[in-house]
Specification:
The complex is a heterodimer. Chain A is of the alpha+beta class. Chain A contains nine helices and eight strands. The relative contact order of chain B is 0.16. Classes of the chains: A alpha+beta, B alpha+beta. Chains A and B meet through strand 1, helix 1, helix 2, helix 5 and helix 7 of A and helix 5, strand 8, strand 9, helix 18 and helix 19 of B.
Chain lengths: 216, 567
């Protein structure tokens, strides 16, 4: 079974919010998950891992402490979502040839969609690399140096993002469906459920505006 | 066509602070840029053909049918399942679990295997699952009263009573039409590049258009089954009066807030159209005649518009009075000299209620298809990267944007209970958006981000302690809770009609204003609020059926023809 990309984004947004991300962060986490799944990469599994690891953890503990290089977290481990969002916010630095370096970022593949949006903004492909892995994207297409490599690792790595002059010609295009990891999907569903308000007799009475007969 | 004279002045667009108020949005009327009319114009222009390869429905009204729309390039098929629904199971609420008919719009022509697969899923709606070959999923319930009346009359060889038809307006009403990837269907992105899908909601409108033909055929089939040789088909002029009803509740209201760029594009297209017509230097006799004819037909349409809701009753009373005043003014007014539509509109802005002003705005566009219709191509949201935040923007720049676009929100005291009395949330039981009382129910922790005014005011307060030259990227690192509002503010800076400039959580909020705005863009008429938070409407009422699209001017169908009504 495949999922539509809108379903993946909607489930991811609710799940991210359910673990305490701000609405704005949750929106971008969801779009990042959608982007990876459209490239048949394990966005849902990685998001489930990151949300589980950082469930309820304060943003200030896992986000870059400052925007001065290299980026580090107060807790010692950077969240790829908080780091990715900051990376995209600072995309113009890449345009001027600067590198953005992150120390000890977990699930680094989740940084790549943010780099992709940075690439769209600066109208130039960018490279995201960590030991043994090089990934290039122009925002739309993606190229991974070793297709057999475990790009979807959860452990922490040192990561660098920089502009490149040309996109590798073997880059692949996005698809229109996602084949999500069922376990990850269920975890997202559990987190998403936290965003639903438990019903009360009062809410049933007031909330939906019912009470008038539908039939005529 | 004769070239139009150059305008001697150019009307500017109405300001967002004027247009994006809930009371005005809640007074919008259908126009040439409504999505149903964009669809019917295209179907007629491109001479789409229609077939019904399958109609396999038994004497109890159970079975399935397939209706195909053939465009110049491809085919779309409505797969309809007819059910025998016990009366006690019939509910229009989104939470219902059974319906009189269920539908999927299939991309292409379905095989037997496709139909077998859909038969095990589509009747379940939310509890089922479809695939990327399905573009929408929907369901409909009968108007019990009218359904039985029409079948009984036709079975007996007589036509139904037109009074009864006009009182209800439809034989079936949809309770949801799901597109854009819902329940596993294809994402909009999969079809957005097709010309016939470039305007918003064209697939959903096509599904309803074909549903209307199915409903007519089904009622005739049931009458024939009951009456045998005595039964007659529906007279075409009566069938044409019947649209498809729709019940729309709170689920649709957050859409306007959750899609700011898209809403901007809808409003901007209509405002651009209005400004273009106001800039027309001289109206031709034909153009004036078209306007006068459609104004008279609008007055008739409003006379037929029924509602039991106190707010809408009052609005209808004012609208009827003001349309008569407009009619008298137009009879006497000089529409043959300089900038007639601009002068007329300026008169209306001081003399008429909001309902009548917006009705006039829509009407003025009618004679000017050549100026207006191409704007339909600009109503979609084609920039998926628009959500990116510009982190290099300075605190000073952002505050300037906030003051320009959210000044109204900064004037509200958000600590006052009546200004934040409500909260939008999603209920665990039904997974649907609801509007609750913040101080009476335990819902604040579950609040959805649907109060952009309050949140923009809070963002503005947080920015006050930051240096004016600081980049927003640094601010957001410390304040991720404002990320959503920063994004909206930057969108509104580029897309000025993106934001409703009113309090969406106040004690006196009327969610039906938000529903009305969206439904008017669909092309709905006869808005009938059933409470402050749900509304009944009619889709494709008076529209041509598939086989009539080529017969005459099919573009002005929302306006009933004079002299045909209630003879």
């Amino acid at each position: 079974m495949t999922h539509s990309l809108n379903e993946i984004e909607a489930q991811s947004r609710k799940a991210a919010r359910g673990t305490g991300l701000s609405w704005g962060m949750a929106e971008e986490a969801a779009k990042a998950t959608r982007w990876l799944e459209s490239h048949q990469l394990p966005g849902v599994r990685l998001l489930a891992e990151v949300l589980t690891r950082n469930d309820g953890v304060a943003h200030a503990d896992i986000a870059p402490q400052t925007l001065d290089a290299p980026w580090t977290a107060r807790s010692g481990v950077l969240c790829p979502l908080a780091s990715g969002a900051a990376l995209n916010d600072c995309a113009d630095r890449l345009a001027t040839g600067h590198h953005i370096e992150m120390e000890d970022v977990t699930s680094p593949l989740l940084v790549v969609p943010f780099a992709a949006w940075a690439a769209l903004h600066i109208c130039s492909p960018v490279r995201v690399q960590w030991p043994d892995i090089r990934i290039e994207t122009d925002g739309y297409r993606i190229w991974v140096n070793d297709p057999k490599a475990q790009v979807g690792l959860a452990s922490k790595v040192a990561l660098t993002c920089s502009r490149v002059s040309e996109m590798n010609q073997n880059a692949s295009l996005p698809e229109l469906r996602g084949r999500v990891c069922p376990t990850g999907w269920d975890i997202l569903g559990t987190f998403a459920h936290r965003t639903y308000a438990p019903d009360t007799p009062e809410s049933r009475r007031l909330g939906a505006g019912a009470g008038v007969s539908d039939n005529d | 066509m004769k070239p139009r004279p150059e305008p001697s002045f150019t009307s500017s667009l109405r300001a967002p602070s004027q247009v994006m108020r809930l009371a005005r949005l809640g007074s919008f009327h259908q126009c040439r840029l409504s999505f149903m009319r964009i669809l019917t114009r295209r179907m007629a222009r491109e001479a789409w053909s229609f077939t019904r390869p399958i109609f396999d429905i038994d004497a109890k009204g159970v079975g399935h049918a397939v209706y195909c729309a053939h465009t110049p390039d491809r085919t779309y098929s409505l797969v309809a399942f007819a059910h025998d629904l016990p009366a006690e199971s019939r509910s229009d609420r989104v939470i219902a679990q059974a319906w009189d008919s269920t539908f999927a719009l299939f991309d292409g022509v379905p095989t037997k295997e496709d139909i077998a697969r859909l038969r095990t899923n589509v009747p379940l709606q939310e509890a089922g699952r479809v695939t990327e070959t399905e573009l929408s999923v929907s369901r409909a319930n009968r108007s019990v009263r009218l359904w039985e009346h029409v079948i009984a009359r036709l079975a007996d060889g007589r036509q139904p009573d037109l009074h009864e038809i006009l009182k209800v307006g439809y034989l079936m009403r949809t309770t949801a039409v799901y597109g854009s990837g819902k329940l596993g269907a294809a994402d909009r992105e999969a079809i957005a590049a097709r010309p016939e899908c470039s305007a918003p909601f064209q697939i959903e409108m096509l599904s309803v258009f074909l549903t209307r033909a199915y409903v007519r055929d089904l009622v005739q089939h049931m009458a024939k089954t009951r009456g045998g040789e005595r039964a007659v088909p529906l007279a075409p002029e009566i069938a044409r009066r019947m649209g498809i009803g729709n019940s729309t509740g709170l689920g649709m209201a957050p859409f306007l807030l959750n899609h700011p760029t898209l809403i901007n594009n809808w409003i901007a297209a209509r405002e651009t159209a209005i400004a273009r017509v106001r800039s027309v230097p001289l109206a031709s006799a034909d153009e004036v005649e078209t306007f006068r004819d459609l104004l008279a037909r609008t007055i008739l349409s409003v006379d037929l518009w029924r509602s039991d809701h106190p707010i809408q009753i009052e609005k209808l009373t004012d609208l009827r009075v003001d349309l008569q005043r407009l009619s008298h003014h137009v009879e006497a007014a000089d529409l043959n000299t300089e900038a007639p539509w601009n002068r007329l509109f300026m008169w209306a802005e001081t003399e008429l209620c909001l309902e009548a002003q917006e009705c006039l705005a829509s009407l003025m566009l009618e004679p000017y298809g050549d100026l207006v219709d191409s704007l339909a191509d600009e109503m979609s949201d084609l920039n998926p990267a628009a959500f990116r935040i510009d982190g290099t923007m300075s605190v000073a720049q952002l505050r300037e944007i906030l003051h320009r676009n959210y000044g109204w929100a900064m004037d509200i005291n958000w600590a006052e209970r009546e200004n934040c009395a409500r909260a939008w949330y999603v209920s665990e039981e039904k997974l649907e958006p609801r509007l609750g009382e913040r101080f009476d129910e335990p819902i604040a922790d579950y609040e959805q981000p649907l109060a952009p005014g309050r949140d923009a005011a809070a963002l503005n307060d947080a920015l006050k302690s930051w240096h004016v030259d600081a980049p927003i990227a640094a601010f957001l690192l410390a304040h991720p809770e404002h990320r959503h509002s920063v994004r909206r503010a930057q969108i509104v800076d580029r897309a000025p009609y993106a934001e409703i400039r009113d309090n969406t959580i106040s004690a006196d909020l009327l969610p039906i204003d938000m529903l009305r705005c969206k439904l008017a863009f669909f092309g709905a008429t006869q808005f009938d609020p059933r409470s402050d938070r749900w509304v009944r409407i009619c889709l494709f009422g008076n529209a041509p059926y598939p086989e009539n699209l080529q017969e005459s001017n099919c573009d002005d169908w929302p306006y009933p023809v004079l002299g045909e009504t209630l003879q």
